[in-house]
Amino acid sequence: MRDFSYFRATSAEDARQAALQASAVMLAGGTTLLDLAKCGVAEPEAVIDITHLSGLDGIAVNQEGAVIGTLAKMAAVADHPDIKAWFPAVSESLSLAASAQLRNMATIGGNLLQRTRCAYFRDPLTFPACNKRNPGSGCSALGGVIRNHAVLGVSEQCIASYPGDLAAALVALDAVVDLGQRQVPVDDFFLPYDHAPERETVLQPGEMILGISIPASVAARNSTYLKVRDRQSYEFAAASAAVGLELESDNRTIKDIRVALGGVASKPWRARAVEQALIGKALEEQTVARAARLAMDGAVSYGDNLYKIELAPRVITRAIMKVGGLA
Amino acid sequence: MTIMETRKHGSAADGLVGGRLSRFEGDLKVTGAATYALEYPVDGLAHAVLVQSTIAAGTVVAVDASQALAVPGVLMVLTPEDDLGLMTASDWYGNRPENQPFLPLPREVTYNGQSIAAVVGESREQAIEAAKLVRVIYEEKPGIADIDDAKAGKGKLMDNLSVAWGDAEAAFAAAPVRVEAEYRTPREYHVAMEPHGLTAKWDGDQLTVWEPSQWTHGMQRNYAEWFGLPIENVRMISPFIGGGFGSKGVALPYGAVAAAAARKLGRPVKLAVTRPQNFTSYGGRAATRQTIALGATEDGVLQAIIHRGANETSTYTDYPEQTGAATPILYKVENFSSQSRVVPVNTVTPGALRGPGKNPSAFGIECAMEELAYKLGMDPLELRLKNYADHDYQSGKPWSTRQLREALTQGAEAFGWSRRSHEPRSMRDGRQLVGWGIGCGTFPVLRAPSAAMIRILANGRVEVVSGAIDMGQGTYTILAQTASEALGVPVDQIDVVLGDSRLPGSAIAGGSMLAGSITGAVHKTAAAARDELIGLALNDPNSPLRDTGANTLTVSNGRIASELGQGPALSLPELMAALGRTEIEVVRNTLPEDAQSLTDQNAAWSSMARVQGPTMGDYSMHSWCAHFAEVRVDEDFGTVRVSRIVSAFDCGRLYNPKMVESQWRGGIIMGIGQALFEEGLVDGRNGRTINNNVGDYLVPTNSDIPHIQVISVGVPDHQASALGGKGVGEVGIVGVAPAIANAVFHATGKRVRDLPLTLDKLL
């Protein structure tokens, strides 16, 4: 048996102090941690249970936006009427993620910190080389079966895909991660894997996610999350798009647009080039489709994930047309 | 061994054969009260964990277990160094090599994920941690990852699978309309909800094994032969099975490891095969390749079928996944040729997975037939009916029953096939392209002997007792219905006891042969028990019915009386009390008279030696089906959704339509998974199946399953079985994948010939 110390935190400060120990992890819903422990990737020496912290599972929505506590369950956020009404992309990204059982257990903070599904990352005994697990050891996925690996924000260091759905919606809607001492835009919270794959976020030892805030906007209210995959449920995205749209008063010229991608990049991927190309343009499918291709600038396929470069712009296009009421 | 209580639904007639009785054990299963193999409480358990290879091929030079042994609670590490003293067991047919040791933890590695060591600890967690610390030093050899590996070559021709009549090559060359294409299916896995595993316990030289089993007597024999024990010294207990699909029919090397560890330690050992290890501890369906060439006249009369198939197998056993199994019998054709090869690669030996052979075979021929239909400009339904096989052209024998025409026409009617628009890409629903396709399926009727015991107890309850198993298909329920009908006792007075090798022997729950076999044995036994009861009632000096003058009696609704109302009508308890009997026990079997010796019986229950194939006799006997699938394809994304399925089946008489429909639907659902998702992803560098978990190896979710309408068009087939049924379990999946692939072609105009139909292939 691999022994680890178990500490039940009674305050966030408590938890942060405990997290300064070497090889410490926080336990919330446990859906990722247990999974990674079973496949031998997570071998913590200290487990800090934060599930008993009070006041961290709130969901509050007002004129300014939404504030969601780190311990709020995925299902609770997905089903919250105000989140559904004001931030549909957030609600949809959660409803389309994982399974009902997992959504009932998993928390928002843990959801952001989920690790990649790269099969090579998850099988350390067979594939010791993994720059994410063991910096400098190489990437076993290169030359392997990589149908669901990333094409954006990758390098020969690592081609693993960030698997989450929620984060794409948050990145699109300019959400901010509350770390207590500092507030970090979700887009900056995640680091691309391409140069230091072992560093996935800006979280420092002793820091924890306390919650997220999402500013209200017309684009947030008029948003959607489109997830494309082979299986209808309980599968990670082949490609997904979180999109928010605000039209001018003529109801056809794009005033504000947000586009972020899931399933194709090393982090939740904001497609600002697409947004910039579309602002001021008429909402029209050909225009949108042309702009959507810009999202793939710099995309690289190392093998059988080439289809994603074709697929992702189509997902963006459909999502924009859908949220524009035209698909 | 568990005694079921009956739960009756619907009318009283539901209790008889053919009634829609709900499954007896359903409540136990959904409430968690059913005890599965690894849940049996056994005192003093130690826990074994397998260590599996991480290379495709090579030799274990050394195993350093020192770190593992240092983990607290670790009791033992078994490695290839340990002589477990086991001998190779017989194959399915009862053939056994002499003096050949059996090495469940071999030194020679022939596939990635092969068990090469095992750690036993006081707790499973300790053993798991220690297993990670076992250091294996290999001398690695070049491996062949899979059938696509350039080193795999063409493989070996399996002469015994070659089939030919007429002159297929010449007829194909002369045919005015020809199609020819290669069809491919990937490695597929059983992924039963209950993973494999066992608890093994020794009492002296008696071994008890709790393990999910599709065949208690067959696996009893496997264990007995490995350990050199008389067969009766081994007891297999398996009253509930959480899905088998062909994977739980024989004892497997991990079972030998657990039982050997238990013997060495002098303690019972539990071994739970982890989900990833389930992908390599036994074989799934082999990857297949087949080329089919069809020649036809311009009006669509088949002139020739040429089939060339191949499947991967292991480097140590030639396992044929018979892609030519359905090809010769689905259609009328005067010129036919089929050859099959096996291609050795570094994999665990593939195994039987629902609809073995017939399933990939139907994918080939049923896609090819639709390709021919489109080439001819003919409705695929019409093409199938036009080439309807009036008899079995392979064996030359008449069909016992073949309602495939009715399946096609009634299925088409229910589906609304006549509203189809022929041209690909001609049906649309918003952004979705809509397509319709057909796939026919078949599975042979296999017949085997079985035994059963009936016990009539003093309280009037009746026990039906057999070593047969129920893995969800409804054995408990249909045996109660069978006994109820034959005995004249209401079904709620009947208890069924199954799943224990100490009970009377039975056919395997595999090859769709159990229901036909065991209902025959139970019917025979129950009729004998009724006759014995009547004989006692007429002749026993203490029987109130003795002097009534009746020359026979009837048993009906649990009461025994004369037909003309002479004398009293007695309930079973009243009669048993009058007779002074505590029980009446009757055992019968369906073996021939000249095969009743104990040796013959043991051989019959624990080997396939007495299994009769579909053409052993005057007829050719098979189950048949026709699936009609509707798909919606989002062309921008390549995603395929099955929106409707109608399937019509000829499985003869249905013993319990509710159970049967459930099995058919289950097969169709597996077929949807096979068509759209399932694929073992093998790393070409080391032969590792990398999606060895149910997060990454996709099977359908409820969201993927549309409304499925199933229709029975069968008629009783008394050549096939005593009660007139044909097999239902396997055939449901056969033909589903081609129906979907054909529908995808109709929707998109794209012909995808390699499963699964993932979105990247349709972009």
From TrEMBL, chain A:
Presence of the UniProt keyword Repeat in the record: no
InterPro entries: CO_DH_flav_C (IPR005107), CO_DH_flav_C_dom_sf (IPR036683), Diverse_Substr_Oxidored (IPR051312), FAD-bd_PCMH (IPR016166), FAD-bd_PCMH-like_sf (IPR036318), FAD-bd_PCMH_sub1 (IPR016167), FAD-bd_PCMH_sub2 (IPR016169), Mopterin_DH_FAD-bd (IPR002346)
Keywords: FAD, Flavoprotein
Single GO term (MF): FAD binding
Highest taxon listed in the record's lineage: Bacteria
Domain FAD-binding PCMH-type: 1-219
PROSITE patterns per UniProt: FAD_PCMH
UniProt xrefs under SUPFAM superfamilies: CO dehydrogenase flavoprotein C-terminal domain-like (SSF55447), FAD-binding/transporter-associated domain-like (SSF56176)
Pfam families named in the record: CO_deh_flav_C, FAD_binding_5
Protein name in the entry: Xanthine dehydrogenase family protein subunit M
Organism: Rhizobium deserti
From TrEMBL, chain B:
UniProt key word Ion transport: no
Domain of life: Bacteria
Annotated Pfam families: Ald_Xan_dh_C, MoCoBD_1, MoCoBD_2
InterPro entries: Ald_Oxase/Xan_DH_a/b, Ald_Oxase/Xan_DH_a/b_sf, Ald_Oxase/xanthine_DH-like, AldOxase/xan_DH_MoCoBD1, AldOxase/xan_DH_MoCoBD2, AldOxase/xan_DH_Mopterin-bd_sf
Gene Ontology MF term list: iron ion binding; oxidoreductase activity
UniProt keywords, alphabetically: Molybdenum, Oxidoreductase
Limits of the Aldehyde oxidase/xanthine dehydrogenase a/b hammerhead domain: 31-142
Protein name as annotated: Xanthine dehydrogenase family protein molybdopterin-binding subunit
